[in-house]
């Protein structure tokens, strides 16, 4: 069992980081290869004037109102606040976890900053509560259940099982060694899967919102369209 521990702690951890970073780079390149800057027709004679274009659009106050009313902040305000808290915790916890950063220091000599174990333990419990809430929504709310497919379940388990096993290992609730080995395996599996499963929303959220031309783009600067 100790051999397996060393394998997961050493070479497999390194491989999972490399696949994760390589996968993110691959997806960014894929995005730019499959989109292009939208071409504006050259013949200005056929285009409406700026004044005419302006007259097509509703006045500023109506625009603001519809933007607000069409956004998730208006249709699902509580869920939006909750999911924002969930996302902050789900990202910060593993990055600032003392146990992780000690392993990084031992393996690669870098000592990233860590939060106290009490704080990350509370964060972990909060993330697990979110897991229970998301599970409840996916099973019992028909409007969520009807759009839930295999990819969503895969994402759910990939995200929450590392949290659950990390928590069980930290508190030594079951036999420590098998639990921490399972945790490392699931953590590494999650890292490797991020760029290739629904978890890639982490990358595409920013690419889509900043680069694609659509009503959902941030700052209206996006000028790319799909090939
Ligand atoms: C690269 C692979 C990983 C390794 C080698 C690893 C290793 C560890 C170790 C050794 C512990 C401490 C157990 C103890 O206290 O003795 C731990 C705890 C934990 N890990 Fe990981 N981990 C990995 C990936 C992840 C990932 C990807 C996540 C979540 C996204 C995660 C979340 C946690 C959590 C939440 C805890 C427990 C915190 C607590 O309840 O206090 N780990 N991990
Ligand atoms: C920083 C980049 C990220 C952004 C901008 C982002 C954004 C989003 C958005 C817009 C949704 C859909 C709305 C919702 O259900 O909340 C979502 C869902 C979700 N995200 Fe992220 N996400 C990011 C990173 C992550 C990471 C790193 C994880 C896990 C490791 C994650 C796990 C999830 C899960 C599990 C759901 C589905 C929740 C449900 O079952 O309803 N996200 N994310």
What this model shows, in words?
The chain is 71% helix and 3% strand. Helix 6 packs across helix 8 (117-140), helix 8 runs antiparallel to helix 10 and helix 10 (150-170) runs antiparallel to helix 11 (176-193). The protein has 12 helices and 2 strands. It has a two-stranded antiparallel sheet with strand order 1-2. The protein has helices spanning 2-9, 11-33, 50-56, 60-70, 72-75, 77-95, 98-108, 117-140, 142-145, 150-170, 176-193, 201-211, and strands spanning 35-37, 224-226. It has a domain at 58-146. It binds protoporphyrin IX containing FE (2 copies). One protoporphyrin IX containing FE binds at residues 9, 13, 16, 93-94, 97, 99-100, 103, 117, 120-121, 124, 162-163, 166-167, 169-170, 180, 183-184, 187-188, 190-191.
Order of helices and strands: HHEHHHHHHHHHHE
How many alpha or pi helices?
12
Overall, the morphology is: elongated
Ligand inventory? protoporphyrin IX containing FE
Question: Largest sheet, order of strands side by side?
Answer: 1-2
Q: Gap between N and C termini, in Å?
A: 50 Å
β-sheet strand percentage: under 5%
Class inferred from helices and paired strands: mainly alpha
Averaging pLDDT over every residue, what do you get?
90
Runs in which pLDDT lies below 50 for 5 or more consecutive residues are none
SSE blueprint:
Blueprint: H1 2-9, H2 11-33, E1 35-37, H3 50-56, H4 60-70, H5 72-75, H6 77-95, H7 98-108, H8 117-140, H9 142-145, H10 150-170, H11 176-193, H12 201-211, E2 224-226
Helix pairs in contact: 1-2, 1-11, 2-11, 6-8, 8-10, 10-11
The protein binds protoporphyrin IX containing FE (2 copies).
One protoporphyrin IX containing FE is lined by residues 9, 13, 16, 93-94, 97, 99-100, 103, 117, 120-121, 124, 162-163, 166-167, 169-170, 180, 183-184, 187-188, 190-191.
């Amino acid at each position: 069992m100790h051999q397996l521990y060393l394998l997961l702690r050493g070479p497999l951890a390194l491989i999972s980081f490399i696949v994760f970073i390589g996968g993110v780079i691959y997806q960014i390149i894929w995005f730019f290869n499959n989109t292009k800057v939208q071409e504006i027709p050259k013949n200005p004679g056929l285009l409406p004037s700026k004044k005419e274009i302006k007259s097509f659009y509703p006045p500023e106050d109506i625009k603001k109102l519809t933007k607000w009313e069409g956004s998730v902040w208006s249709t699902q305000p509580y869920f939006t606040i909750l999911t924002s808290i969930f996302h902050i915790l789900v990202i910060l916890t593993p990055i600032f976890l003392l146990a992780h950063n000690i392993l990084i220091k031992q393996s690669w000599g870098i000592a990233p900053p860590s939060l106290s174990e009490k704080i990350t333990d509370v964060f972990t419990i909060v993330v697990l509560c979110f897991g229970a809430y998301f599970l409840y929504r996916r099973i019992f709310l028909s409007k969520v259940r009807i759009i839930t497919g295999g990819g969503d379940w895969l994402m759910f388990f990939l995200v929450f099982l590392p949290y659950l096993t990390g928590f069980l290992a930290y508190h030594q609730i079951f036999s420590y060694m098998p639990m921490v080995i399972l945790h490392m395996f699931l953590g590494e599996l999650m890292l490797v899967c991020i760029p290739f499963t629904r978890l890639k929303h982490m990358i595409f959220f920013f690419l889509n919102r900043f680069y694609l031309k659509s009503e959902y783009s941030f700052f209206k600067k996006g000028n790319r369209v799909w090939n």
